[in-house]
Amino acid sequence: MSAVLKHSETGGHQLGKGEKMIIETVVVGPLMVNCYILGCETTLEGIVIDPGGDADKILSAVSGHELKIRQIVNTHGHFDHVGANRDLMDAWGVGLLIHELDAPMLECADVTALKYGLSAENSPPPSGFLRDGDTISFGKYHLKVLHTPGHTLGGCSLYGEGVVFTGDTLFAESVGRTDFPGGSSAALGKSIREKLLTLPDETIVYPGHGPTTTIGHERLYNPYIAN
Q1: pLDDT tens for residues 26-63?
Q2: Interior/surface letters 12-27, b for 16+ CB within 10 angstroms, e for the rest
Q3: Nearest-angstrom CA–CA distance, 150 and 182
Q4: pTM listed for this prediction
Q5: E-strand spans in 10-153?
Q6: Residues 38, 51: contact at Cβ < 8 Å?
Q7: pLDDT tens digits for range 133-162
Q8: Rounded Cα distance, 116 and 185, in Å
Q9: What are phi and psi of 218, to 5 degrees?
């Protein structure tokens, strides 16, 4: 059984009572990206979100959970979030999902990284595209794709099971930069207000960099969000 990407116009799935999703954070690369390993304890199926580098660290963490990774997902196309795509796709024989608007970044990660004095490997092309309202399923778990542009044109967040993975859209008491190509402070604010702050306060936020937080905390204390 593989990770399933379903295109849908309906709402997301609810957390099943008594179930526990494996969530492990592996901080990778020189820009300290949070790569997330998600898994189902019952089926041992899993996905990996934003493998920005250090493929060996990610492979070791996945092996520790004995997971069968079914899909790699990039929340957006910046080089620091996609650097280990190729190595992991080759190791697991799996596909890659990203929003269509960010897919062109995958083939120029090396050039972009050089502008910052860093190195990154270009990614293979995606096997499919994320769309707002899609559902990514693995084992018993389901995450709804929320298109949250602003940091990039195709930035996405993944919501379900009481958690949301926000990429570089929303951080603990901060938000993503909008001064890169494709960035827009107006679009970012709209994404946060209409897609993220509408989630329950107790929703745990797993951002692309830095510590976890909650939607409720950010609603009250994030100085970049206009109340």
Answers
A1: 999 999 999 999 999 999 999 999 999 999 999 999 99
A2: bbeeeeeeebebbebe
A3: 7
A4: 0.92
A5: 21-28, 33-40, 45-49, 68-73, 95-99, 128-130, 135-138, 141-147
A6: no
A7: 999 999 999 999 999 999 999 999 999 999
A8: 22
A9: -65, -35
